[in-house]
Amino acid sequence: MNFVTRRIQKLGQKQTYDHFFETLRYAFYVIFHPADGFWDLTHAKRGSLAAANFIVFLTLLTRIWKLRFTSFLVVDVNWEKVNIFVECASVLLPLVVFCICNWGVTTLFDGKGHLDEIYMGTAYALTPYPLIQIPIIVFSNFVTIEESTFYYVFDNISLLWCVMLIFMAMMMIHVYTAGKTLLFLVITVFGMLVFIFIMLLFFSMISQGISYFVSLGKEIMFRLN
What we know:
The protein has 225 residues and is mostly helical. The protein has one domain (2-224). 82% of the residues lie in helices and 0% in strands. It has eight helices and no strands. It has helices at residues 2-32, 34-43, 49-69, 84-107, 115-125, 128-140, 148-174, 178-224.
């Protein structure tokens, strides 16, 4: 009985790993065939949150590797002053806020995508970043200043490719026209700014409230003594 149970568990784990690698490989199809790729990603369930999380994690690692290992000729970074948590937050926070704001805005205007689908599509759209950045990080250490132009070209290509894929992802996921997608991406960016402003205001008020009660407590303790 135990043998049968272990066998079933191993088969279940194998299917889980196979599904993960299959959905991860699908990212290569998505970046070269974005229209069909993003449609099937969510509507045909060709993607997975596990693969999306892995792509985001790889993007974070690539960001750190870029700061650490890129030649000083093209990226002048003082590694000792780099805060890894801040660098990770600079990627994760915009990603999370974008997904929330896009979902909130498009829900009001017949958007078909759910929050998990928006996150998955956005994560898959980040695939070109590590795919291009990792080779050019290595390349940067073997070029002269004159040849560093190639680095900047491919660096910009990786970012523009991601932006284009995010546009296509939102269009396919929400079943919008190109014009409507562009409009709601602009509204999403505006919503992100409003969201960040409200969060900063909220935390500022919380901080001031905590400071007030701490000062009040110290004053009471001082008078009691």
